[in-house]
Design goal:
147 residues, mainly alpha, 2 domains, 7 helices, 0% strand
Length: 147
């Protein structure tokens, strides 16, 4: 049951809308993987989600809203962890959004043939020698969880 719940929660946290970031910031310094956040939610809030969010769509906004509306019925640990988990995922999404801007020079210089193909561009950047990428691009790729 925990594995199924983790998978469903992974889908929920991955469906968060992207928070567009103008540039990398210290707030993005610690991003957490989607899987880690789903595991944290499953372990801390699984019983509360089952008890209080029955019938609620498991997409992130609805799940977060359900837990927020039922704060009185969820444990203190769940309250603390669901806020951390959703915030961490929002930071990871913001970091992924920042890759395009922070790697613009490298995309044009090193990965010109992959322009217009986001998956190919990321693969190209990841295969490029680290020394060939600028500091900001390297940081963005790391914070986005691509490395």
């Amino acid at each position: 049951m925990i594995h199924i719940r983790s998978f469903v929660l992974l889908i929920a946290v991955a469906s968060l809308p992207p928070a567009i970031s103008a540039a990398m910031s210290p707030a993005l310094a610690e991003t957490v993987s989607f899987e880690s956040s789903a595991t944290m939610l499953s372990e801390s809030c699984g019983a509360e989600i089952d008890a209080n969010c029955h019938g609620v769509s498991f997409d992130a906004p609805h799940l977060r809203e359900c837990l927020s509306l039922n704060q009185d019925a969820v444990s203190a640990q769940c309250r603390a962890d669901y806020i951390k988990a959703f915030d961490a995922i929002a930071r990871r999404i913001a970091a992924r959004s920042a890759v395009g801007k922070l790697c613009q020079r490298e995309k044009q210089k090193i990965c010109a043939e992959a322009q217009g193909k986001p998956g190919d561009t990321i693969t190209c950047l990841l295969n490029a020698p680290t020394k060939g990428l600028g500091w900001g691009c390297n940081q963005a790729l790391t914070q986005a969880g691509y490395r």
